User: What shape does this take?
Amino acid sequence: MNDVHETAGSAERYRSLGLVANPFATRDERQGASRATLLEMQAESNRLLATVAAAAKTGRASVVWVSKSNEVAGFFHMSAESDAEQRMIVDYSLRMLPCYVQLYMARVGRIRSALNVLAERVATRSFELTLVELVRAIASAPDTSLSEWLPVAGEAWEGFSDAMEKDPIAAVREHFGEYVLQRTPRFEPPPTDIREISLDPEPEELDDSPETDVFTDGAPRAFGGSIPDDALATPDPRIAVRAFLIAHIRAHYSPVIARAIQAYADEGFGQLITELKITAAPRKTFKALMRLATLRFDSVVFVYDGLESWRSVPEELQEKFIAALSEIRVMAGKHGVMVFLAEQDAAPELEDQFGIGQRIEWTFPNLARVDERAGEFDAEAVRWWLECATIPGHRPHRLEDGGWPLLIEAADGDMERFCAIAQQAIERAADKGCETVDEEVARAVALGECATA
Assistant: This one.
């Protein structure tokens, strides 16, 4: 996902109203589905998003347990999760990096499964913007003790610093290349990287275990780099500056991240993804990637799904997986939010361990009724949609207060009409920075609706 297409922030737009989204605006038009049905599906998505957003601001590791009703088709659960995840991606005002992890992915390693998804998300969320934050942090306090500093000290570094001040994205592109999948177009699929498929899923890892070794660093990549070995000797100051920045990253962040960023400069973000996954010490690399991600994002949200097969996992492996999840929670620290999506009673051992924090019951309580009533105004459903979109800690909007009675009267019992004017009222109130939909806003919208009816 390129940040050129990310929004300025719809969640921020509705914050004065205490809402995470406009509960009456449909985001996914499905053929044959009424507006009320779509809004009922989105309500659970809004509730998850509001809960996760609040959890992310607590300043501590947080867990959200979502219990999926067995009485509702899985399609509705998938729709709610997908919608919430998509909004975490496109709404930059949330400053969240979602990482969707299925249980079966643990076959590559209990820690590696989370690491691999984190690597993919860091690389594909317009990595150059993350790289800008990393380079900016280095530029504010460069390690001048590194041998790579000498060729850039003075004019080269001053020129680079000036370029970063004027246009940081342009400066990063000048030294690392543009954000593209491949620097050289290829018409055949890349060969399998033997380093990646040979990684130990569960390596024994100690505090002093290195992230790289002769195999992970020494084996050739699937496609070789284009930067000469004598980079420091070249007269081009851009290559010398890049060599220093990568040396700083190697010394103060991670040799895996340093190698990956060199690969990004050489080949594009496709190879960046691969290199971030190739590590002999996945825990160390996970912590380094969390540090990198949170230079740009306030929180990383790990969403664990596919837990319906939990009972088929041997008890010994269940215990190891629970231990690994506890490790991930600790390593993610205050920037981590873990979300578990599980059908009722599907994973009791996991629920005992992680189900004691924030809980959500996905029941879609109004789904059958709004379908049956065929467009008739349903106050109970409307209250539910407003409640689900309300940010925890804020008072839900009451249909008896402010301008809501005027909107209900203007709708004249028609659910489609009410949703349309309620959507307009929320937008107008957000434009004005209101804390509620007051009578002035409601009257203006209702009169406009009557004029066009």
